[in-house]
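Lay summary. Proteins are chains of building blocks that fold into shapes, and those shapes determine what they do. In this project we predict the shape from the chain. Here is one chain we studied, written as its sequence of building blocks.
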Amino acid sequence: MVFSSLTFLFLYLPLTLLVYFLSPLRWRNFVLLVVSLLFYGWGEPVYIVIMFLSIIIDYTHGLLVEKFRSDDKKARWFVAQSVIFNLLLLVSALLVFTDWFNGYTGYSLDLVVPILCCTALVCNFIFAFLRSRFTANALVYLLMNIGIGVLPYILLFFRIDYSGRLDAHSLPWVICLIISVITFLGLVIFRGRALKNEIVKRLHM
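And here is the predicted shape, written in a compact code that computers can read:
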């Protein structure tokens, strides 16, 4: 969908404006987020996953940079983390595109991307404990784990055949799923108190 198309001018734009102005003020940014993802994913829905992950990475780390803006060392630490995760995401996307451009042999989604996903999950888990005195980190790292860890669920769901079984090429994603669950439970168990305090604080409970 392009800006000059009839679909954009007579369907997408009017509906977007209608929903935006009918929404309460506090929900308007969320509405813009959803319709923007819809717009950019119109031609290739798979790109929504990439954008969603990038949004989670940059938004959560942006919150941390803002929180510790008075401490230059801490702020730089979180910027570095954001760069690392975005580079992993970018490399994954480039590998998938290269694989598809060369006839798609499947090596990118069957091997390289799950390895990078596992690397991101493990790095996220390690980062959560490197700076244990940052109590606000626990919730951010949990959200990062959920955002990255949802990939194996999505990929494995579409790889289940009519008999309810997975092919042998799905093994790296199964391992990625196991690591996702382990790191998620590890964050909940070992950072549970910090998570509870942060949720109570943010939700004013």
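What the prediction tells us: The helical segments are 6-22, 28-40, 46-67, 72-101, 107-130, 137-159, 171-190, 192-203.
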